[in-house]
Amino acid sequence: MVFLCRFGVELMKIKKVINNNIVCAEDDKGKELIVTGKGIGFGGKPGEEIDSDKIRKTYKMASSSVQRRLMELVEEIPYEHLKLTDDFIERIRGRIQCELNENLLITLSDHISFVILRKSKGIEFSNPLLTSIMEYYPEEYELGKECLEMIKDTFGIKLKTDEAGFIAMHIVNAELNTSMNEVYDITNLIEGCVQVAEYYYDRKFDRKSLAFNRFAVHLRYFAQRLFSDTVFEDSTEAKDETFRRLIKETCKNHYKCSECIAEYVKNKYNKEVTEEELVYLTIHLKRINSTR
């Protein structure tokens, strides 16, 4: 977790000047932290007390290894790129109602800085998963587009919408607390499950419907559990044999579809789908087919 403060860390002393706007500091307990602010490092020397009036924010990570990575990053990228990313993450926190991995500040700052550098050299990448990202992570994609607007307004740089998809993936990664490679695997698995279901029902789902959005969110965490080999933990009816039997009997068609999804997962990823997972897939499949 990142602890952020404005104007209020007492007895902080400079440990190392990174640049005019960033210093590595120590608090009164000897803990290392990153401090940013306009001109905060200008003319500063190790051991000097920091002028609290110049402090914009302080960064103190829960993990010492993440703190070291942040230290390395701020020595490599412009302060303005870090500041824009930090402002953007504040916007994300106001919209995404879940805890975000503290690595997001590092991975996203690094990504945005690299994108801006690439653009200055006339290099832009296409995003092969853009359509899937727009469909399965709509809120994160919208935030990605807003980030592109922030970059355009701040630096006068216009980026392709493909980049909004890449930024969205970083947000999803922070939500799921996983690796970027796994996020791509999760996205591909979601796409595969949706294709199986659409083939089974012989129709295209409405990507803008609430039922589809709920189905996609469920598949996101379903896929995460599969790749992390985590058993579905739920204290509700899904664990009750009577409830499971009722779902199988009253929703036979949808349960059969969930079994087809399980077969796809088994064949492609060699992962077993539990009875509890089948029940919840069935419930979501019933909902998405009730809104035709």
What does this structure look like?
The chain has 3 domains: 1-76, Transcription Regulation, Sacy, Chain A (Roll), CATH 2.30.24.10; 78-177, PTS-regulatory domain, PRD, CATH 1.10.1790.10; 192-288, PTS-regulatory domain, PRD. It is built from 11 helices and 5 strands. The protein has helices at 64-74, 79-95, 104-120, 130-136, 138-155, 162-176, 180-201, 210-227, 241-250, 252-269, 275-288, and strands spanning 2-3, 13-19, 22-26, 32-36, 57-61. It has a 5-stranded antiparallel β-sheet with strand order 1-5-4-3-2. Strand 3 (22-26) and strand 4 form a beta hairpin. Helix 1 runs parallel beside helix 3 (104-120), helix 6 (162-176) crosses helix 7 and helix 7 packs across helix 10. The chain is elongated, with a radius of gyration of 23 Å. It starts with a strand and ends with a helix.
List keywords for this structure.
about 290 residues, alpha+beta, Transcription Regulation, Sacy, Chain A, PTS-regulatory domain, PRD, 11 helices, elongated
Report the total helices: 11
Main sheet properties: 5 strands, antiparallel
C-alpha-based Rg, rounded: 23 Å
User: What oligomeric state best describes the polypeptide chains here?
Assistant: single chain
Helical amount among residues, as a percent range?
55-70%
What CATH first level of the largest domain would be assigned?
A: Mainly Alpha
Residue ranges: pLDDT <50 for 5 or more in a row?
A: 1-9
